[in-house]
Amino acid sequence: MKNLLSLALFILLVSGLHLQASAQQTDNTATQTESTQESDVATPAAKAAIIQKKPRSTTQTVLNKMAATVQNLPLFGFIDDWYYTRYRFGGTTKKGVDCSSFTLQLFRDVYQISLPRTARQQYEVSIKVNEDEMQEGDLVFFNTRGGISHVGVYLVNGYFVHASSSRGVMVSNIREPYFSKRFLGARRIVGPMNGLL
């Protein structure tokens, strides 16, 4: 798991540099030519050439996509630490955790915000967010057993982290057929920084 964090952090750095390379290509300026020189190892083109590798697992593929814009290193560390922790209804530890306990602990450790224990209570203390305005740290809610019965934390590009009853802590996408049919919406916890997370 620590390898996943290292990979995600490295990709995060390279992704930021890749965005700079895209802007340079659009401008068609002389700096674009300079960015590909071997002498400038920190350039986007040089970095991209160094890491032309295929991900070794589905988990890494998801984290690669997620890392393109998520820049919260404590969040990556938390996900890496808990990834594949098995699901246990009512569980609150790494021996087994349920979805709302996982989000509670993520908010406590990453954002220093206390959440209530259940998904329904977390829904009630949060404010509605339009799907096109979702951002990292928003709670995403699903109807998996009737009503508000599952919760996760939104990351980026449709991806969210959650404690799945079938596979434990993992990253999924709200556009996957299973989740898109059950998606109830996103909500935001009012926090200490500018009133929002």
Notes on the structure:
It is a single chain. This protein has 8 helices and 8 strands; from the N terminus they run H-H-H-H-H-E-E-H-H-E-E-E-E-E-H-E. The protein is of the alpha+beta class and about 200 residues long. The protein has 2 domains: about 70 residues; about 130 residues, Alpha-Beta Complex (endopeptidase fold (from Nostoc punctiforme)). A 6-stranded antiparallel β-sheet has the order 3-8-4-5-6-7. Strands 1-2 form a two-stranded antiparallel sheet. A hairpin with a 2-residue loop joins strand 1 and strand 2. The longest helix has 26 residues. The protein starts with a helix and ends in a 9-residue tail after the last strand.
What's this model, at a glance?
With 197 residues, this protein is α+β, with helices and mostly antiparallel strands. It contains eight helices and eight strands; from the N terminus they run αααααββααβββββαβ. Helix 1 runs antiparallel to helix 5.
